[in-house]
Amino acid sequence: MFAPYRSHASSYRQLDVETSGDAATPHKLIAMLYDGAIAAMQRARAAIGQGDVAGKCEAVTRAIRIVDEGLKASLDERGGEIAANLRGLYDYIGHRLLQASARNDTEALDEAAQLLAELQSAWQAIAPPAGRPAPAAAAALYAR
């Protein structure tokens, strides 16, 4: 009957994400996935430190879904060896995230976050200038 309460800040944040996604280039969308996964890992680490099991599980699940259903699923096989290597690395990151959750292992969580941060940095380094298309090599990695 009634919609659940949402703060104004939460509504604006959601609107910002939705409008950012609608107007984003394919390159920017991948960058947003990296941002979201890393933020979820940071929340998971904080939850482990606070003994918040539900928060940890929610954050790790979100990170795994972003990696598997976002980053890995959007890889384009036409990207060849690089796409195949990224797929393997995303599988490894997902595995480490599962270990981190099962064992409250912050080292596994930090390793996964560090690997993703390095990929994020490389992705940012090949960002096209505003208004220009992504380099062909970058565009070939992810499906449109």
Set down the secondary structure blueprint:
Layout lengths: L7 H16 L2 H25 L2 H20 L7 H24 L2 H20 L10 H4 L5
Helix pairs in contact: 2-3, 2-5, 3-4, 4-5
Apparent shape: elongated
Strand content: under 5%
From the alpha-carbon coordinates, what is the Rg to the nearest angstrom? 17 Å
Mean pLDDT: 84
Number of DSSP-assigned strands = 0
User: Count of DSSP helices?
Assistant: 6
Tell me the distance between the termini.
39 Å
Assembly state of the chains shown: single chain
Largest sheet: none
Helical content, roughly? over 70%
Order of helices and strands: HHHHHH
Spans of at least 5 consecutive residues with low confidence: 1-15
Strand pairing plus helix content: what structural class? mainly alpha
Summarize the model shown:
This protein has 144 residues and is an all-alpha fold. It has helices at residues 8-23, 26-50, 53-72, 80-103, 106-125, 136-139. Helix content is 76%, strand content 0%.
Explained architecture:
By secondary structure, the chain is mainly alpha-helical. Helices cover 76% and strands 0% of the residues. Helix 2 runs antiparallel to helix 3 (53-72) and helix 4 (80-103) runs antiparallel to helix 5. The model is unreliable at 1-15 (pLDDT under 50).
